[in-house]
Amino acid sequence: MPEATPFLEVADLVAGYRRGLPILHGVSMHVSSGEIVTVIGPNGAGKSTLIKAVAGLVIVESGSITLGERSLLGTAPDRLGAFGLSYVPQTANIFTTLSVSQNLALAARRCRSEPEARIAAMFDLFPALAERRAVRGGGLSGGQRQVLAIAMALVAEPEIILMDEPTAGLSPKASQDVLDLVRKIAGEGVSVLLVEQNARMALGVSDRAYILADGQNQMDGPAGDILDDPAVGEIYLGGRRKGAA
Ligand code: ADP
Ligand code: MG
Q1: Nearest CA to ligand 1 atom 1
Q2: What is the structure's pLDDT at 239?
Q3: Most buried residue, 100, 122, 152, 237, by most Cβ within 10 Å?
């Protein structure tokens, strides 16, 4: 089957936090429509920097970032929603002093359709949030907070969501729930770019994956191939796969 046209495309990206001291040294990757793509790699590899570059939050020295036909370079982060892109940061991704409903209402204020209807749609999609609509963000469990953060990204009807380690700090059960949710989101036609430390679990729900190390592409391919590659398992997935021959 021929691969779909890239929707988000990053090419030869040199980017970082200070001009002349790049963290990413020419990274290329793409996400096609409806795809779940995971970026894995050791701590400090530049995974968050890559996602932040797409979200307009770091300095891009050269290379390109395009969404559909549009270049994202120089776009203010608060304009990205209008282009169909939502970003779920790794931390501080909800307002702890506001209720679940208030968090969603804030996130929905720039959405393209009727905010009330979108919030109702989120409560249908995430019954656990509906039950807790009056609970303050700070009163949610870690897993519920991540679900709220994801719902806040989805409420704006994005075509692509960027998520930075949505399972960080969660129990294996809560992590699996969050990743199942990612599948559900992609099932609705939203593309997902996922960064994960929880590599094995993330690859299990992904279509394709990229391995980054030292700010450079190391490897990419179908998620299943990456999972089954013995060398990748040893180096990047914390040893042999359980039950593998
Ligand atoms: P990963 O997400 O793969 O663990 P990061 O993209 O967060 O890696 O970090 C890549 C490199 O960028 C690291 O060397 C890190 O120290 C550096 N870095 C991350 N955030 C900042 C920042 N705000 N300012 C300067 N350097 C940073
Ligand atoms: Mg990171």
Answers
A1: 44
A2: 58
A3: 100
* CATH number, domain with residue 60: 3.40.50.300
**Tokens encoding 165:** 């380690």
Q: Classify residue 1: in a domain, yes or no.
A: no
* Ligand 2 centroid, distance to 66 Cα (angstroms): 22
Distance CA 3, CA 179 (A): 24
- Packing angle, helices 142-154 and 115-125, rounded to 10: 140
Whether 214 is in the pocket of ligand 1, judged by its Cβ within 6 Å, is no
Per-residue model confidence as pLDDT tens digits over 38-58: 999 999 999 999 999 999 999
Mark the ranges of the chain whose per-residue pLDDT is less than 70.
Answer: 1-5, 239-245
Q: Which residue range forms the structural domain that includes residue 137? A: 6-236
Determine the distance separating the centroid of ligand 2 and the alpha carbon of 53, expressed in angstroms.
Answer: 12
CA–CA separation, 179 and 157 (whole Å)? 19
What pTM does this model have? 0.91
- Is there a domain that residue 245 lies in? no
DSSP 8-state assignment for residue 157: -
21 in ligand 1 pocket by Cβ < 6 Å?
Answer: no
Instruction: Examine residue 20 and state whether it is found in any structural domain, yes or no.
Output: yes
Q: Atom 25 in ligand 1: which residue has the minimum CA distance?
A: 17
Residue among 113, 54, 58 at smallest CA distance from 80: 54
Q: Which of 10, 23, 51 best tests ligand 1's pocket when mutated (most atoms within 8 Å of CB)?
A: 23
- Domain-located, residue 86: yes
